[in-house]
Write a structure and sequence with these properties.
Blueprint: E1 2-6, H1 13-24, E2 33-38, H2 44-54, E3 58-63, H3 68-78, E4 83-86, H4 95-103, E5 110-115, H5 124-141, E6 153-156, H6 157-170, H7 174-181, E7 184-189, H8 202-215
Parallel strand pairs: 1-2, 1-4, 2-3, 5-7
Antiparallel strand pairs: 4-6, 5-6
Helix pairs in contact: 5-8, 6-7
Length: 226
């Protein structure tokens, strides 16, 4: 199940849908593509419905503007297959990327993270903010992840459902709950597309850092497999 939270991403729907079909269909796997529209003000829902008429594996869920984390949680709860891949609407899957992600799985407690690389074309403030968040998460996890804040994640539905329950109960970001519950975390390279009209701003990073700092005391980490 590919879970994609979207808000005002009408221009990305067709490209992502076709890329998913081309990447996954050759593997012979049962799959679905779930778009969770988080109160878009453009034609995003209409574009998803149009693509669903062409590709029957596409499904649309709608939320009321609660944010990316909670929209993703809705997709995790709605997923029907045993493994869940979360990505952003502006990213693209390929056959080789999907195969690499799947090959990294060894246990249903695994969490596979798509490492987006150095992203040197990002503004300096974004790279600095991401580095601070990465340091904070690695300190908490006792890990050395290169891209601890990535939204590109592959995990079992069981792990996802546990993480959603924890995130809702403790009012913490879903990503933090996934990191906490995973038995083994593995990073694999992911070819990241840097969008020129990024919606991340300094305030967004500061707010995320504050949420993480507030959430850490509320959640226990599962023991890590080597």
């Amino acid at each position: 199940s590919v879970v994609v939270p979207v808000r005002n991403e009408a221009e990305e729907i067709e490209g992502l849908s076709l890329a998913c079909r081309e990447a996954i269909s050759p593997l012979g796997l049962a799959w679905e593509l779930l778009f969770i529209d988080d109160a878009s003000e453009d034609e995003t829902p209409t574009r998803v419905r149009n693509m669903a008429r062409k590709i029957e594996k596409i499904h649309l869920f709608q939320t009321n503007g609660a944010g990316q984390s909670k929209a993703t949680a809705v997709g995790v709860r709605g997923a029907r297959h045993g493994w869940i891949l979360t990505i952003d609407a502006d990213q693209r899957l390929s056959f080789d990327v999907v195969r690499t992600l799947l090959a990294s799985l060894a246990h249903e407690r695994d969490l596979i993270l798509g490492n987006r690389g150095a992203r040197t074309s990002l503004p300096r403030w974004r790279r600095g903010g991401s580095a601070l968040l990465r340091t904070l998460l690695n300190w908490w996890l006792g890990a050395s992840l290169s891209d601890a804040t990535t939204s590109i994640r592959l995990f079992s539905r069981r792990l996802g459902e546990e993480a959603v329950e924890i995130a809702e109960r403790c009012d913490i970001p879903l990503h933090l709950a996934l990191l906490a519950r995973a038995g083994r975390i593995v990073e694999v390279p992911f070819p990241y597309r840097v969008r020129p009209d990024s919606r991340y701003h300094l305030w967004s990073l500061a707010r995320l850092a504050f949420r993480i700092l507030c959430a850490i005391p509320r959640i226990r980490r599962r023991g890590r497999a080597p």
